[in-house]
Design goal:
The protein has 114 residues and is mostly helical. It has two helices and no strands. The longest helix has 83 residues. 1% of the residues are buried.
Length: 114
């Protein structure tokens, strides 16, 4: 009878230890799953933000190229206006020159983000 009690206590101790170890494995697996889902959510967020920044940078580059072309055109027009229609010392600029200057100021303000 004494051996049966010892065997029963041993079996109970082994069963308890096994259950404890298996429960620890289960909790570790759940924790790992939660960590993986958090990492995936952060990666998705980072991917979205990176895409937004990349799109903004590409848009900026496109705008910069257009502004550079427009500025080159305005420089040509201004040089043409200076060469072909000089302003007398006591006279106001003509409408063509004012239009070119206004366009140049608008382009500069656009480039500066105003």
């Amino acid at each position: 009878m004494k051996t049966k009690i010892i065997i029963a206590i041993g079996v109970i101790a082994i069963a308890f230890s096994s259950g404890w170890i298996i429960n620890g494995w289960r909790l570790a697996a759940d924790s790992t799953t939660e960590k993986l889902s958090a990492v995936q959510a952060n990666a998705d967020h980072f991917r979205g933000i990176t895409k937004m920044i990349n799109d903004s940078a590409n848009e900026y580059l496109g705008n910069s190229e257009q502004l550079e072309k427009r500025i080159a055109e305005l420089k040509k027009e201004l040089a043409h206006a200076k060469k072909n229609h000089p302003v007398p010392a006591d006279c106001r600029p003509d409408a063509d020159r004012l239009r070119v200057l206004k366009n140049a100021v608008t382009a500069a303000n656009t480039a500066a983000g105003q």
